[in-house]
Amino acid sequence: MNLGIFMMPLHPPEKDRTQCFEEDIELVVRADELGFTDIWVGQHHSVAWEPIPANDM
Question: CA-CA distance, 23 to 52, in Å (whole number)?
Answer without folding.
Answer: 12
